[in-house]
Specification:
The complex is a heterotrimer of chains A (142), B (178) and C (398).
Chain A lengths: L9 H24 L28 H33 L2 H24 L22
Chain B lengths: L1 H22 L3 H21 L3 H25 L21 H28 L11 H10 L3 H22 L8
Helix pairs in contact in B: 1-2, 2-3
Chain C lengths: L4 H5 L3 H14 L4 H38 L15 H11 L10 H18 L17 H22 L3 H32 L4 H6 L14 H17 L11 H4 L9 H26 L13 H7 L3 H31 L7 H30 L4 H10 L6
Helix pairs in contact in C: 3-4, 3-11, 3-13, 4-11, 5-6, 5-11, 6-7, 7-9, 7-14, 9-11, 9-14, 11-13
Classes of the chains: A mainly alpha (142), B mainly alpha (178), C mainly alpha (398).
């Protein structure tokens, strides 16, 4: 470990600590000066002037989850692409650029196939386009 | 001195986060502690010089998988009631103090056994440390492009399979009405 | 070590003598301690400058929007209303901090802190100038992408913790917007990494020059398109209009920060404005030549030759020129961001998602493939080099 110099991560740690300090400090400072008069009406959630009805989350919106899944796949793909893209220039100068280009193209085109599949099957549509039975369910009153 | 501080902080964050995940009774809070634990793991990777791995950990895990888990918890209503419709606890208690103690002790013993077995392996093949300026990104990139090109391409096919599988599973089933 | 503030100052004789003196005094090698002190001082300076820029950003937004709407905007507090943001800050600290009775207290308090931590951590790798960078990580740009996605977690937790319908919906939409638009942004960044050959911010900027024809923006048509894809995606990632559906005033009251009062809301707003600055800074670093000054004035060499100044002073002047170049370009982009907000109407949520997945992502993938093919075919030369050097060497160019 003698040649490993971790001083380059110091600013990261310092800045995270500073962020916590700024947030905590300003909130603490505020708690000394600001008024604190809780009453029942102020503590209820805002629903445009009405009394809040029902629980806060009753819909089963699966499209959020599908988007998150597709995002994760592409995120991992980009994480794998980064090191290969970083050495592409060097490989190009040596002369091995063609083979690496083929690899990058194959990698990307496989994932393009994936997104084309999702597109065609309607997973990327935000508004559901099929029949009525698949409308989001309304909250059940217990 | 800073490397010691960084290691200590990352290790505390990892272990503390993990213990908090197991202890917490609220699923959302457990997810947040998991986020802290993954941050600690990224710090540990940075301590041993695997900077690209640390950044990947942050991007994929802290930025992606945690959001995915949070969405999944929201959509399956894991936080609303603690008792499901059969009267059973949705998130049963992990056990009492005896369970924790036994599990922790077993983990410690197995860790010691594994380290003892692997110690000769590590002392023979010394892990090469990077010099201060060198980047692990170039090494990983070169290896991915030359020696392990098949792994690189297979991983893209694996990701394609995961994408299609996820899309198929989460697609709502069309019900046929007469 | 990669060049950072510390290594820049280590070139001066004063610092080396200071380190030697301290080492003798304390008994152990004080270079690490001095490095820590310098980093802490500069991090403090950068946080203060960024907070001021964030605050002035709110002021600039109100003034520019007033200009676009043919009115005057704030002009009471201080000269031309410049101290308005301080007054706003004081107001926010003094407001009562209400936590609704249904809210999840731990998460409610954590969400703005998480947003702020994510944004401040990205400040470490933003390249202000070649000498004043805080941390020139070898994985600089990748680390920045990772930290920016932490803001998405913060937005979602803010929406969830409030336990109100508007906040929940706003939080879910906000988080899915942020994660969706990360993909075209990251793909555009990969296209530039292809051109530059490295992940650290220094490598990305050193591949460009000071004059506009050396920027990556004009390197090839794919990078040109990539700039717009990145700019739009980054705008959507920071929840700025026309993508500000999570905080849409007319639809969701205030989205994920409906129930936040006082300073916690102030922290969300501060994080958003600083994030806009960081995103503009990254766009400048990747596409617009970063801190590079035309005619290579930034390195100070010309000053040494022409004016015969001392090496260190010339370098300092060069650094200030580079700082000026970076901040000018970033603030111009910041103005464009504010301009776009008050010009375009808000997008619906399905239009938002369609734009990302059906337009920007395919375009970004096309740019990526195009840049890779260009690099291979023309050996990484920019379009200007090909045109003008081919003409200069006498070879016929079609």
């Amino acid at each position: 470990m003698s040649t490993l110099n971790l001083d380059v991560y110091m600013p990261v740690v310092i800045l995270i600590a500073l962020a916590l300090l700024v947030a905590g400090g300003s909130l603490f400072l505020g708690s000394l000066i600001r008024p604190q008069h809780p009453n029942k009406l102020k503590d209820t959630a805002y629903e445009c002037g009405e009394e809040p009805v029902g629980t806060a989350w009753a819909n089963f919106n699966v499209r959020f989850y599908v988007i998150a899944l597709i995002f994760i796949i592409f995120d991992v793909e980009s994480a794998l692409m980064f090191p290969v893209a970083a050495v592409f220039k060097r490989f190009n100068e040596i002369g091995l650029g063609g083979t690496l280009l083929m690899s990058i193209l194959t990698f990307t085109l496989v994932l393009v196939a994936g997104i084309v599949y999702c597109w065609k099957k309607g997973d990327l549509d935000w508004v559901k386009s099929f029949n009525q039975t698949n409308q989001p369910t309304i909250a059940r009153k217990e | 001195m800073f490397s010691n501080t960084l290691f200590l902080a990352s290790a505390l964050l990892t272990i503390g986060g993990a213990i908090a995940v197991v202890y917490s009774k609220n699923l959302m809070h457990a997810c947040i502690y998991l986020l802290a634990s993954l941050f600690g793991v990224a710090g540990l990777y940075a301590c041993i010089g695997a900077d690209f791995l640390a950044a990947t950990q942050l991007v994929v895990y802290a930025g992606g998988v945690v959001i995915l888990m949070l969405f999944a918890i929201m959509l399956t209503g894991g936080t609303s009631n603690k008792i499901n419709r059969y009267g059973l606890e949705k998130i049963p208690a992990m056990g009492n103090k005896k369970t924790f103690f036994t599990a922790g002790f077993a983990a410690l013993v197995s860790a010691m056994i594994i380290i003892k077995i692997l110690l000769p392996v590590f002392s023979v093949n010394k892990v090469t440390t990077l010099s201060a300026n060198e980047s692990s990104v170039e090494k990983i990139g070169t290896l991915l492009a030359t020696d392990h090109i098949l792994a690189f391409e297979i991983s893209s096919v694996l990701l394609l399979g995961a994408l299609i599988g996820a899309a198929v599973i989460s697609r709502p089933r069309k019900e046929i009405h007469d | 070590m990669n060049s950072t503030v510390v290594s820049y100052f280590s070139q001066s004789n004063e610092l080396t003598s200071l380190i030697a003196g301290l080492s003798k005094l304390l008994g152990f090698d004080a270079s690490s301690l001095v490095a820590f002190i310098i980093f802490a001082i500069f991090a403090g300076i950068i946080v203060a400058v960024m907070a001021t820029i964030g605050g002035l950003g709110t002021y600039a937004e109100r003034k520019i929007s007033a200009d676009l709407q043919a009115r005057i905007g704030p002009n009471r507090v201080g000269p031309f209303g410049l101290l308005q943001f301080l007054a706003d800050g004081v107001k926010m600290i003094l407001k009562e901090d209400i936590i609704t009775s249904n809210a999840d207290k731990f998460t409610f308090n954590l969400a703005p802190v998480l947003c702020l931590v994510g944004v401040f951590a990205t400040l470490a790798v933003v390249p202000y100038s070649s000498g004043f960078m805080l941390a020139d990580l070898n994985v600089g740009i990748f680390y920045l992408v990772g930290m920016a996605s932490l803001v998405g977690v913060g937005v979602f937790l803010g929406g969830y913790a409030s336990n109100s319908k508007w906040s929940m919906l706003g939080g879910m939409r906000g988080a899915s917007q942020i994660i969706s638009y990360e993909i075209p942004a990251t793909l555009s960044i990969i296209a530039i990494v292809l051109l530059a050959g490295g992940l650290s911010m220094k490598t990305l900027i050193n591949g460009q020059g000071g004059a506009p024809q050396d920027w990556y923006l004009f390197h090839n048509p794919f990078a040109f398109m990539g700039f717009f894809v990145y700019f739009i995606s980054a705008l959507a990632e920071t929840n700025r209009a026309p993508f500000d559906l999570p905080e849409a005033e007319s639809e969701l009251v205030s989205g994920y920060h409906t129930e936040y009062t006082g300073m916690k809301f102030g922290l969300f707003a501060l994080a958003e404005y600083i994030e806009v600055f960081v995103v503009c800074g990254v766009a400048v670093a990747l596409f617009l030549g970063g801190y590079k000054v035309p005619f290579d004035l930034g390195s100070g060499q010309i000053l040494v030759e022409k004016l015969g100044l001392d090496g260190m002073i010339a370098q300092n002047i060069g650094q200030f020129l580079e700082l000026g170049s970076f901040f000018t370009k970033t603030l111009i982009l910041y103005y464009v961001v504010i301009w776009v907000r008050w010009t375009l109407p808000r997008l619906r949520v399905d239009q938002l998602m369609t734009l990302c997945w059906k337009y920007l992502t395919p375009i970004a993938l096309f740019n990526l493939i195009g840049c890779a093919v260009w690099m291979y075919a023309f050996n990484g030369k920019s379009i200007f080099t090909l045109l003008f050097h081919a003409a200069a060497s006498g070879g016929g160019h079609h």
